[in-house]
Specification:
The chain is of the alpha+beta class. The chain has two domains: 68 residues, no CATH class; 52 residues. A hairpin with a 4-residue loop joins strand 5 and strand 6. About 6% of the residues have low confidence.
Length: 138
């Protein structure tokens, strides 16, 4: 998969108010547009930042893309739910990979996870956190 920075005309979805965004565009193996994501300009040092800005500047010499250039469709509610469930499952696996095994039994394992991970998994805000420093096993 290849990618580069491009300009995306978002005027149509912005109530016809002119808006162009710098985005990271991903391509299929055949060169067709796969999708895009917003960019965040971060770097380890000034030279790396300078290189990133040089890549950004290359986008100015390419045709401006429109949303209609992408073969993406708006996801259905079921697809969003499926995506959310997949993201939650991935988060659970990430948390479990970082967890400390407390005790192993024949058919179950008890783990201890940190409070922040538990709250993130459950979608708790700071106001809803448990008082315990460590929380129950998953």
């Amino acid at each position: 998969m290849n990618w580069n920075y491009r300009l995306l005309d978002r005027t149509e979805e912005n109530g016809d108010y002119p808006l162009i965004e710098l985005v990271e565009v991903h391509y299929e193996d055949d060169g067709s547009l796969m999708g895009y994501c917003t960019v965040s300009c971060i770097a380890d040092n000034v030279e790396e930042m300078r290189q990133t800005f040089a890549w950004y500047a290359l986008a100015l010499d390419k045709p401006v893309l429109k949303l209609s250039d992408f073969k993406m469709k708006k996801p259905t509610e079921e697809e969003w739910v499926d995506f959310a469930e997949q993201a939650r499952a991935k988060l659970a696996l990430d948390i479990l990979n970082d967890a400390d095994v407390m005790q192993e039994f024949d058919d179950e394992v008890w783990v201890q996870i940190d409070k922040d991970s538990w709250n993130e998994f459950n979608g708790n805000t700071d106001d809803e956190e448990n008082d315990d420093e460590k929380t129950n096993a998953i």
